[in-house]
TrEMBL record:
InterPro entries recorded: P-loop_NTPase, T6A_TsaE
Gene3D superfamilies: P-loop containing nucleotide triphosphate hydrolases
A GO MF label: metal ion binding
Lineage of the organism: Bacteria, Candidatus Kaiseribacteriota
Protein known as: tRNA threonylcarbamoyladenosine biosynthesis protein TsaE
Main location class: cytoplasm
A Pfam family recorded for this sequence: TsaE
UniProt-annotated location(s): Cytoplasm
Organism annotation: Candidatus Kaiserbacteria bacterium CG10_big_fil_rev_8_21_14_0_10_49_17
Protein family according to the UniProt entry: Belongs to the TsaE family.
GO cellular component: cytoplasm
Amino acid sequence: MHVESVEQLKEEAGNFLQKLTIGEKATVVGLIGELGAGKTSFVQGVAEALGITESVTSPTFVLEKIYQLVDAPFGQLIHIDAYRLDGEHELKQLDWDTLIGNPKNLIVIEWADRVMRALPEGTRIVTLTHSKESRDISYGSK
Ligand SMILES: Nc1ncnc2c1ncn2[C@@H]1O[C@H](COP(=O)(O)OP(=O)(O)OP(=O)(O)O)[C@@H](O)[C@H]1O
Ligand SMILES: [Mg+2]
């Protein structure tokens, strides 16, 4: 699907969120896209739709940011940026197995392709592409 603007991307992210349902384990969403493709903007759209009012920025240096949620089906939004992770083993530092085991967690990971092997089966994959002509978004799962 074409995305004409950041506003439309965020709206689309909100629509995507509304369709997620809580499972037996965490809901994991992997974002794939080149530098500047709109990964963080997508997370901002999700965060806004969850009622998060503080500004969401890329957790490039802290690796992970956690937002507590009230009045939402999920208990917390966990935003991870895998850009600086040196492979799957570094996710373990974030207590990964505990995070993905908790059904109240909504985990959104930028640069998911860098840690694909650590992502559980059923992870939703959101791919963002951009060229001079157009920006697109497509959905799949692991
Ligand atoms: N669909 C869009 N239309 C127009 N501008 C967009 C769109 N998506 C993102 N942008 C703009 O592109 C820039 C980069 O977006 P963003 O930070 O979300 O990308 P990113 O994929 O997270 O980048 P990084 O790889 O650095 O993490 C921002 O200025 C954002 O406003
Ligand atoms: Mg980003």
